[in-house]
Amino acid sequence: MTRRPLPGPGLDHLDPFLFLNHHGPQTYPPGNNGLPFGPHPHRGFETVTFILAGELAHSDSGGHESVIRAGGVQWMTAGRGLVHAELSPRSFKERGGPLEILQLWVNLPARLKMTEPAYRGLEAADIPVVEQDGARIALVAGRFDDAEGPVRPLTGLEMMVVTLAPGGTVELPVAVGRTIFLYAVRGSVEIDGETAPEHVLAELGEEGDGVALRSVEGAVLLFGHGAPFGEPIVAHGPFVMNSREEIVEAIRDYQAGRFGGL
C-alpha cells in the first residue's frame, strides 16, 4: 500500500518540500519480488528516504551503493543528474518481512540545481538520538539540544524523526520564516492545541520560534523545516527545474547518456 500525502488536495507543494510517498507498512512473504523502483533518472532536487522497517538497496550512476536497514536514511542529491535504483536486496526477497518506507523530495534552488550529485547512506547507529519527556528525536540533519545530525544539507534543511510515547510532549525550535513540514506516520499529534490525525500532512504557519507537540496515544512523526525559495517550479516526471526549457534540456541530456547509467 502506498500513500501520497504531498502533493495533496489544494497543496501542490510546500516550498521547498515537493513530494512525499509513504509505502507500507506491509509484510512481504518469503520469495517475494520486492520493490520495483528500478533504474530511473533525476535532476534538480534531493531525495531523502527513511527506512522505518525492512531494508532497501541503493545504487546510482555516480558509483554509490548501499543496503540500509530499519531506522536508517538514504540522502541523495540528484543535482545536475544521475540514474539510480531503489530495490529490495536479495536477502529481503528471499526471507520476506515487514517493510515501511517514506520518500521525501526536497527542491534545490536555481543556483544549486546543476550541482554535483552526491549520496549518503546512514544506518540507525549513525543517527544521533535525543530523548526527553517521553519524546525520542532521531536527528538526521540540523541541531537539537547539544546534538547535531550527520547530514549537512546544501540549503540548511533540518530533518528528524520524532517518536512520542503516550502522553509524550516536545517543543521543537524553528526559526521565523521557515517552512515547517510535519507528517503523522503513525498515531495522531496535537500541535499547539489542534490535532493532526494519522497519515495527515500538517501545514503550519511560519510565525513563532517553535512548535509544541503532544500525543495522547503515542505517535511517529516526520518533522523538518527549511527556507522557502520562492522560485518557479516546473516538474516533469523525475525532473524538477525552474522553466520548461530546462525540463527539455534535462530530457535531452538524459537521452544522450549524460546522466550515466546502471
Keywords, separated by commas or semicolons:
262 residues, mainly beta, Jelly Rolls, 24 strands, 51% strand, globular
Description:
This protein has 262 residues and is mainly beta. It folds into two domains: 1-126, Jelly Rolls, CATH 2.60.120; 128-231, Sandwich (Jelly Rolls). The chain has two helices and 24 strands. The chain has helices at residues 90-95, 244-255, and strands at residues 2-6, 17-28, 36-42, 45-53, 55-60, 65-69, 73-77, 82-87, 97-107, 118-122, 129-132, 135-141, 143-144, 147-148, 158-164, 169-173, 179-186, 189-191, 194-196, 201-203, 210-214, 219-226, 234-236, 239-241. The strands form six sheets. Strands 1-2-9-4-7-10 form a six-stranded antiparallel sheet. Strands 11-12-15-22-17-20 form a six-stranded antiparallel sheet, with no helix packed on it. The longest helix has 12 residues, at 244-255. The chain is globular.
